[in-house]
């Protein structure tokens, strides 16, 4: 692979036809994703075996940053995604990345969707969501795929999605009530300063008044 890469790098781009340039870019990009899958598997082993600490670094993230000269955020993303892909719910995404059928960015979107799913959505539902998102990755870049991932539960398990939405709304309303407050402070000149934060119900009362 290293020899092939060197040969490609040494080639004259200007000598290639338009179709060869386009096909070459697509193939190189696909191979990059496949290599990324290999890298993530090795990163997972690095983290699981705690090799970074054994080599005097601050864990896997520290070793990746120091040895491979990548940023800390990048190293963290590698470690997280490598571990995320090592499990049944994301098996289809891991296989697709290894085949070059999805990109690393798309795999991150899919992994985040699985992590953020409600507890009620067990492994079977998660696997269905992953399968649907992997299929959609052939049509959408990470931005639209992320928006689709936010609604994927409604597609594969509408009952679970409805209950999750109700629970999220109830939790949001509870947080709003807990944040309520209202103070009246005299300004020393016959006036009063008003300061506060209301939930929707209390705000409706004040607005009507």
List the helices and strands and how they pair.
Elements lengths: L1 H9 L7 H31 L2 H4 L4 H10 L3 H13 L6 H8 L5 H12 L7 H14 L5 H8 L2 H5 L1 H21 L2 E6 L5 E6 L2 H9 L1
Antiparallel strand pairs: 1-2
Helix pairs in contact: 2-5, 4-5, 6-8, 7-8, 7-9
Descriptive overview:
The protein has helices at residues 2-10, 18-48, 51-54, 59-68, 72-84, 91-98, 104-115, 123-136, 142-149, 152-156, 158-178, 200-208, and strands at 181-186, 192-197. The chain has a two-stranded antiparallel sheet with strand order 1-2. The longest helix has 31 residues, at 18-48. The protein has twelve helices and two strands; from the N terminus they run αααααααααααββα. β1 (181-186) and β2 (192-197) form a beta hairpin. The chain is elongated. With 209 residues, the chain is mainly alpha-helical.
Provide the descriptors you would attach to this structure in a database record.
12 helices, 209 residues, two-stranded antiparallel ribbon, mainly alpha
């Amino acid at each position: 692979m290293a020899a092939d890469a060197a040969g490609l790098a040494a080639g004259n781009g200007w000598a290639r036809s338009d179709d060869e340039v386009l096909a070459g870019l697509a193939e190189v990009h696909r191979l990059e994703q496949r290599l990324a899958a290999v890298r993530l598997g090795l990163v997972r082993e690095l983290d699981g075996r705690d090799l970074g600490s054994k080599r005097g670094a601050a864990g896997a993230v520290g070793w990746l940053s120091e040895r491979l000269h990548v940023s800390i955020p990048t190293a963290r993303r590698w470690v997280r995604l490598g571990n995320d892909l090592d499990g049944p719910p994301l098996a289809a995404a891991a296989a697709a990345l290894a085949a070059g059928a999805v990109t690393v960015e798309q795999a991150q979107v899919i992994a985040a969707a699985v992590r953020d799913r409600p507890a009620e959505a067990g492994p079977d539902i998660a696997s269905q969501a992953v399968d649907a998102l992997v299929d959609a990755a052939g049509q959408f870049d990470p931005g639209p795929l992320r928006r689709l991932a936010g609604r994927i539960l409604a597609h594969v398990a509408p009952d679970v999605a409805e209950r999750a939405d109700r629970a999220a709304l109830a939790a949001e309303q509870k947080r709003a009530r807990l944040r309520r407050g209202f103070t009246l402070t005299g300004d020393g000149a016959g006036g009063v300063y008003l300061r506060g934060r209301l939930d929707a119900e209390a705000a409706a009362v004040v607005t009507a008044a």
